[in-house]
Amino acid sequence: MFSHVFVGVSDFERALAFYTPLMASLGLPPRFCDRGRPWAGWQTPGSANGRPLFLIGRPHDGQAHLPGNGQMPAFLAADRAGVDAAHALALRLGGRCEGPPGLRPDYHPHYYGAYFRDTEGNKLGVACHTAE
User: Fold this and answer.
1) Would you identify the CATH topology of the domain 4-59+71-128?
2) Fewest CB atoms within 10 A around its CB: which of 17, 21, 118, 130?
């Protein structure tokens, strides 16, 4: 469905230090990191064309990054333990909790998710959709 999702950041090095271990915990390998631009991307493993990508970087227009209200990329975890681990890691890396891990049956009976903000104020989610 998606080619890529780009999340703006102001402090690239701080954001990279946040996202590198978070993406690794979710099994998303790095595709590139260009500190000169600056931007970095991670890809879905095993996809034929390396898509979708998750990207971080400074806004292209050169203006300051401002987190949006109502935008929230959510990463897929293999299981509930992966949701728990990613959320805990995000908080250890300087993220801020926006909703602890847990079932959210108002979405669907097996939705298990957690929400947090990165070091730039962007809201992110991690979810698992299986019964275990």
Assistant:
1) 2,3-Dihydroxybiphenyl 1,2-Dioxygenase; domain 1 (3.10.180)
2) 130
Strand order in the sheet with 39-43: 4-8, 53-57, 39-43, 30-34
Q: Cβ(21)–Cβ(86) under 8 Å?
A: no
Q: Which DSSP helix (H) or strand (E) runs through 74?
A: strand 74-76
Distance CA 60, CA 38 (A): 10
Tokens 């890691």, residue located: 89
pLDDT digits over 39-76, tens only?
999 998 888 788 899 999 999 888 889 988 889 999 99
> Distances in Å between the alpha carbon of 40 and those of 7, 9, 78, 124?
10, 11, 23, 17
The model's pTM: 0.92
